[in-house]
Write a structure and sequence with these properties.
Chain A: It comes from Perspicuibacillus lycopersici. The complex is a heterodimer of chains A (about 450) and B (about 325). Chain A contains twelve helices and 13 strands. By secondary structure, chain A is α+β, with helices and mostly antiparallel strands. Chain A has four domains: about 190 residues; about 80 residues, Nuclear Transport Factor 2, Chain: A; about 80 residues, Nuclear Transport Factor 2, Chain: A, CATH 3.10.450; about 60 residues, no CATH class. In chain A, strands 1, 2, 3, 4, 5, 6, 7, 8, 9, 10, 11 and 12 form a twelve-stranded mixed β-sheet that branches. The N and C termini of chain A lie far apart (about 65 Å). Chain B has twelve helices and four strands, in the order H-H-H-H-H-H-H-E-H-H-H-H-H-E-E-E. In chain B, a hairpin with a 2-residue loop joins strand 3 and strand 4. The N and C termini of chain B lie far apart (about 75 Å). Classes of the chains: A alpha+beta (about 450), B mainly alpha (about 325). At the A-B interface, helix 2, helix 3, helix 5, strand 3 and strand 4 of A face helix 3, strand 1, helix 9 and strand 3 of B.
């Protein structure tokens, strides 16, 4: 009797486990298929868009009038940004595919620049036309490779989930068709040197901050530590450590870290000349004892005492009990925005807890400020009539193609918003209009009622 | 000789006391604290500044306790109209003039802020009509006990408008409630770096916390900096969410650790990175050498190591 009951109970348990396992399995499969489908969609969208890209670039080659060329180029820009987006949805992070992505975004930049330009005044140059031609050729290559991969994926029912797992585990999967295919695309793109794409491309590449031209001689680790002491007050019991940069860096630097009872302070110093790149210390700041204004004066004093001269406060913000300030150089009453230094001040005792001269070091040099060719009044006429101008001055900014230009700077208001408007002081072009950020309501209070 | 010295000390002490007291009374008269308020500041002083500017009709924005551009222009207009130096800084002379010219119904303003009401603080108008979810000001005050409308400098400003609160003239209770509330009160808005919302920051803090909560502060800033460097890089998506949720990009996203609740440290780290601190030297990849499975990542040029992570190009 007991035996029969036991057998019955066990049978039920076994069947129950089986049913449960089957359902779990079914659910897992459904989720897998769902994920797989997302990948498939991104992939097929990508190949479709590359097809389209190739065609669109082809049609622009035969166009002549501005009316058809500008929209077509804008279309190319849209397609590249969509493809870029689709690549971002595929699990390709752990394999080399960045050259292709860079290539896509370069086509996008190029077509955008050309599309927004007034082609009646400044038609496509011979050089740009040749660039378009080679882009047409190169997009054909990529299209070809991708179509091949697409064909194999469809024919052999290849799954992106396998690719993801293969890449994540680092093991070679049995069938590497997709990975190999994408590697081939990457190799093809790598083959295009910048010369093939014309000088426009190389000039458009963002200039990376390089500290190679800094004046001064190379410093040793010991000197680095003594420089650090000029910026940070180091207690007696503090532990210090200096480490050289790795081989992959564009420039050489030392990382200094100081550990004492108050917390940790870190700092990077260039090897050439021994300039501070950034400083950061972390400690708890529990209350506010000094005002933001006092803190900004502290920060300015800190700069002046350390040979950063002619700096002017540009922006200030308070986050909890910390003040964050941006200072820029001011030469002959002209603000030089690329030469910016950021400083963080603790509002409990007014000490400097952060410093960043990353931009400043890359751009600072002795400058000749050119005379503006356009007067302020002439520049004012270029501004939207609805904007009420409140303040004005001269400044140097980096424009969209990353060149330094002299501009008339205006602060103006339109309804409740404040705008910074830059008018080129040489050509009178509107270089940039920036809507300044307003404070954001804290949603916790709005959603939760009472905080 | 000795008694003389003691007398001297006593005199000095007495003087100090007197000074301190007179200083206090000045503070009471103006209600502002001693700080110079400048653009970007946050807090009670800013709430008062905005309320007073609104009372005089210079400021039409929300009273939210963040000194933004709208407050800045309002202050400058005020300074111009009242013949002060136009510098956009609320220093001593400006605050004194402002306190003389306007009233500040602190209790009313703070109550509205606490309740999350929509409200304004214009002079010459019944306060009861200036708040959105229509609540009787008087009854609400009775309900919350001891929140009399404080009237600093209000008596000098003319326009006796809040006669309904005559019963709450006990100055002592008034200041007490005022200070109690002042500490409990928070501004209803916050500064955010250009181009980022609080939600972006929260999402990044989630990622940073999931990826590097065991790391030192600087190690967390470094992870946030990598996310930002990827935003600028042409080889990566252009949005915060695009970068974070790129398949395979972050292990914390893949295994769900991103949904752990981040602490304040990771949020601070994200803010630092957004505000321009990049401890990585422009890295766009990082990996933990002990757990990295991909061989390819080792081929990237390495910039430096922070904590357990190696940062590379």
């Amino acid at each position: 009797m007991l035996r029969n009951i036991l057998i019955g109970a066990l049978t039920v348990a076994v069947i129950g486990t089986g049913v449960w396992a089957y359902q779990e399995h079914k659910e897992k499969n459904a989720i897998l298929i769902n994920a797989e489908n997302n990948y498939q969609r991104a992939f097929h969208d990508l190949t479709y868009n590359i097809d389209l890209l190739h065609d669109k670039i082809g049609t622009t080659l035969a166009m002549n009038s501005k009316q058809s060329l500008s929209p077509a180029l804008a279309d190319v820009w849209r397609i590249t940004s969509e493809s870029h987006n689709e690549v971002g949805q595929l699990p390709l992070t752990l394999m080399p595919f960045n050259k292709t992505e860079e290539f896509l975004s370069k086509i996008g930049d190029f077509s955008y620049e050309a599309a927004v330009r007034d082609l009646d005044k400044e038609p496509l140059s011979e050089e740009e036309y040749n660039t378009l031609k080679s882009l047409y050729q190169q997009s054909a290559d990529i299209q070809d490779e991708l179509r091949q991969v697409q064909y194999l994926v469809l024919k052999n029912n290849l799954r992106w989930m396998d690719v993801e797992m293969a890449l994540a585990s680092g093991k070679e999967a049995a069938d590497n068709t997709i990975i190999d295919g994408f590697k081939t695309v990457e190799k093809t793109v790598e083959g295009y040197s910048d010369n093939d794409m014309g000088p426009i491309f190389t000039s458009m590449e963002k200039k990376e901050a390089s500290y190679k031209n800094l004046p001064g001689k190379e410093i040793t680790e010991k000197e680095a530590l003594s420089i650090a002491k000029k910026y940070i007050t180091i207690g007696k019991s503090a532990e210090t450590k200096v480490v050289k940069n790795g081989d992959g860096s564009d420039y050489e630097f030392y990382s200094v870290s100081i550990q004492d009872k108050n917390g940790e302070t870190n700092m990077d110093i260039t090897k050439k000349g021994g300039y501070p790149i950034w400083i950061m210390s972390n400690r708890d700041i529990k209350q506010q004892n000094i005002s933001l204004n006092e803190a900004s004066n502290n920060a300015l004093k800190f700069l002046n005492n350390r040979n950063f001269k002619n700096m002017e406060l540009f922006e200030s913000s308070q986050y909890d009990h910390i003040g964050v300030f941006t200072f820029v150089s001011k030469i002959d009453n002209v603000r030089v925005y690329p030469e910016a230094i950021k400083i963080k001040v603790a509002l409990d005792d007014g000490s400097i807890i952060g410093f960043s001269a990353e931009e400043y070091l890359g751009t600072h040099r002795t400058r000749e400020i050119p005379q503006p060719k356009i007067t302020e009044d002439e520049a004012r006429k270029q501004i939207n009539k609805n904007v009420k101008i409140m303040e004005s001055g001269l400044a140097i900014i980096n424009n969209r193609s990353n060149e330094e230009v002299l501009v008339h700077e205006f602060l103006g208001t339109l309804e409740n918003d404040t705008y910074r408007i830059y008018i080129n002081a040489e050509t009178g072009d509107e270089e940039e209009v920036i809507k300044l950020q307003n404070a954001e309501p804290i949603y916790e209070d709005l959603v939760g009622g009472k905080a | 000789m000795k008694t003389k010295r003691i007398l001297k000390v006593f005199l000095i002490f007495a003087c100090c006391l007197l000074l301190a007291q007179s200083g206090e009374s000045i503070q009471k008269a103006s209600a502002f604290t001693n700080q110079v308020i400048q653009i970007g500041a946050v807090g009670d002083d800013v709430i008062e500044l905005q309320s007073r500017l609104q009372y005089l009709g210079f400021y039409n924005g929300k009273i939210d306790g963040v000194f933004g551009w709208q407050t800045y222009w309002a202050l400058r207009n005020f300074q111009y109209e009242f013949g002060l130096k136009v510098d956009g800084l609320a220093g001593w002379p400006t605050k004194l003039k402002l306190a003389k010219a306007s009233q500040y119904h602190e209790g009313y303003v703070k109550e509205q802020i606490n309740k999350g009401n929509k409200f304004t603080h214009y002079g010459g108008m019944d306060l009861n009509k200036q708040t959105a979810p229509a609540k009787k000001n008087n009854t609400a005050q009775k309900g919350t006990t001891n929140q009399p409308v404080k009237k600093p400098a209000g008596n000098t400003g003319g326009a006796a408008q809040n006669t309904g609160n005559a019963g709450t003239n006990n100055q002592n209770a008034g200041t007490n409630a005022g200070t109690n509330q002042a500490t409990a009160n928070k501004p209803t808005a916050t500064n955010v770096p250009n181009g980022f919302s609080q939600n972006d920051i929260q999402l990044m803090a989630n990622a940073v916390h999931g990826e590097s909560r065991g790391e030192s502060y600087i190690g967390q800033v470094a992870v946030a900096a990598v996310i930002l460097n990827r935003l600028d890089s042409p080889s990566f998506p252009d949005t915060v969410s695009g970068v974070i949720f790129e398949p395979g990009a972050f292990t914390a996203v893949a295994d769900g650790q991103i949904w752990l609740t981040p602490n304040e440290t990771s949020k601070k780290a994200v803010l630092d990175a957004i505000n321009g601190w990049d401890p990585t030297g422009n890295a766009i990849y990082y990996f933990n050498p002990d757990t990295a499975t991909s061989g390819w990542i080792w081929s990237r040029p390495q910039i430096k190591q922070i904590g357990k992570h190696i940062f590379c190009k």
